[in-house]
Specification:
The protein has helices spanning 16-19, 41-44, 80-104, 114-131, 145-152, 154-171, 196-213, 237-240, 245-249; strands spanning 25-28, 51-58, 64-72, 135-142, 178-183, 186-192, 227-234. It is an alpha+beta fold. A four-stranded antiparallel sheet has the order 5-6-4-7, with helices on both faces. Strands 1-2-3 form a three-stranded antiparallel sheet. It is elongated.
């Protein structure tokens, strides 16, 4: 945030919060004449903002993640060229977010790719070691997947992998959980601050949910797509000293 002393503030107290409620952007020539902003602390107190213009920034999944905005301590009339410049800046930022997402995401399943997952594993490992927190890892393997591809074809195999990834996404959505495509028909789920009992519970939910998809698999003894899940957890410094790769090896 340039031009203001505040580095971190609660979103609900900001002027930008109102931009996030709009379809695309918000322009207020004089905040004291706008009933939404007139009583805001940034208007009534320091820094006494009188002009505001902001565009909503969307992540690649369509969710709002922030704004690009300009403010002034005196009322202003914004021109079409000014609005266009702000819009172009917003569009550039959204393009960069899209490029970033593509660089770290598996294009088929939407899970993180292997490189990014490994980076996040190392990061969470260091955090767990520093704060003495448990960390768990689940490795999820689609059963008899080569037989499935041989029998139904690779397009059907891609659909099956996406369906399994959807289950993982739905059941591994706690803040901090990281889902990656480890390779082929294997997925990995990193569960920070998760003990063995909780990891086992999540694994059981995933196993049951994949079966409930009821995707036919004539070449499997189960008759439907199933997964096998291995899990491990580390809880103390002695184990963590072995390094993050020890989780995968286990």
């Amino acid at each position: 945030m340039r031009g203001l002393d505040h580095c971190r503030i609660n979103r609900e107290t900001t002027l930008c919060h109102h931009t996030l409620q709009q379809e695309d952007h918000l322009v207020v020539p004089d905040t004291l004449k706008d009933e939404r902003l007139a009583s805001n602390a940034f208007v009534t107190g320091g820094p006494k903002i009188r002009f505001y213009a902001g565009f909503k920034v969307l992540a690649p999944n369509g969710l709002p993640v922030g704004t690009v905005c300009v403010m002034d301590q005196k009322p202003r009339i914004i021109t079409e060229d000014d609005i266009s410049a702000l819009q172009q800046l917003r569009d550039l930022l959204q393009e960069n977010l899209l490029l970033r997402a593509r660089a770290i995401t598996d294009p088929l399943t939407g899970a993180f790719n292997r490189r990014h997952f490994d980076e996040m594993l190392d990061k969470e490992w260091r955090r767990a070691y520093r704060h003495m927190l448990p960390v768990s890892l689940l490795m999820v393997d689609v059963d008899h997947f080569k037989r499935y591809n041989d029998h139904y074809g690779h397009v059907a195999g891609d659909h099956a992998l996406c369906a399994v990834a959807g289950v993982l996404e739905a059941l591994g959505r706690r803040a901090g959980d990281i889902i990656g495509r480890f390779g082929g028909e294997e997925f990995s789920i990193l569960l920070p601050e998760t003990d063995l009992q909780a990891a086992r519970r999540i694994a059981t939910q995933i196993n049951d949910a994949v079966r409930e998809l009821a995707i036919p698999h004539a070449m499997s003894p189960a008759g439907v797509i199933t997964v096998s899940i291995g899990g491990t957890v580390v809880t103390d410094h002695q184990q963590m000293a072995w390094g993050s790769r020890s989780l995968i090896e286990a």
